[in-house]
Amino acid sequence: MVIRGGGRLAGRVRAIQKPVSSRLENYGRDVRLRLGTALVLMAVLALLETAGPAAASSSSSTAAEPPGTPVAHSFRGMSTVGPLFRPDSSVHTCTASVVDSAKGDVLITAAHCISGTGAGYTFAPGYHDGIEPFGIWSVVDAYGARGWLAKQAPQRDFAFLVVAPRRHNGHLQRIEQVTGANRLGTAPVSGEQVTVPAYATGHDDNPITCTTRVRYDGKFPAFNCNPYVDGTSGSPWLHRTGKSWEVVGIIGGPNQGGCNSWTSYSARFGWAALRVEFEAASGFAGSTFPTPGSDGCTTTT
Questions:
Q1: pTM (predicted TM-score)
Q2: Per-residue pLDDT tens over the stretch 197-214
């Protein structure tokens, strides 16, 4: 069985969602608009959440790798993506990335990568060969969707983390000022091309990356590329939009990202992800995450 980052621990309604995403990106310019948008989102999402996310069926680890599956390759990393370290550990067990926000201090990863309040976790953007070119950033708060916090629903397997500012070149700066950031998007369409930088569990190592195309397995986005193994949970699915990147998924969701190294899944980003990102960027009270349960994968002897 492939267990990725602790089970892996250690879609698109553009016509409706793009206006919301645009407003969320610009809310820092107008406090009244931010508050008004928040109230509307919360009211709508409270209704949507009562329906509950789609359940995921368990995957079998005995399935064969599809013919023509792309192969990931090692590279030197990118400034907005890095490994996530659990408190008091020198081994990274998940992957996270910087998302654009008004205050410039928000990351995204998989919800099953986090336990408790997130305090004590650290993030090393651009990490390679044991080198931390942009420093180590400390998580101070974590934010999750109620579907994950209450019942670990795979369709809500995403978390947003706030990191404290740190001194860089003698100046106190927020992480987005140092590394840049990727824009939070909504779920990809089938056939859309994504690039997925990721860190396998370890230390003093390099990330891998793969450019492939999205397909759907039921209601969940998926892609084939091998090997995405332990530690790759939370890795961003980056879609190029002009000169910038948009995060349209992260490794997670069904079976905490999948039971095989060649197929990876994501929760389907939509209203719930936008809401949680808004809460993180706005300084709402953080969440307390449950200890993640089993990934539900099966093995054979």
A1: 0.82
A2: 999 999 999 999 999 999
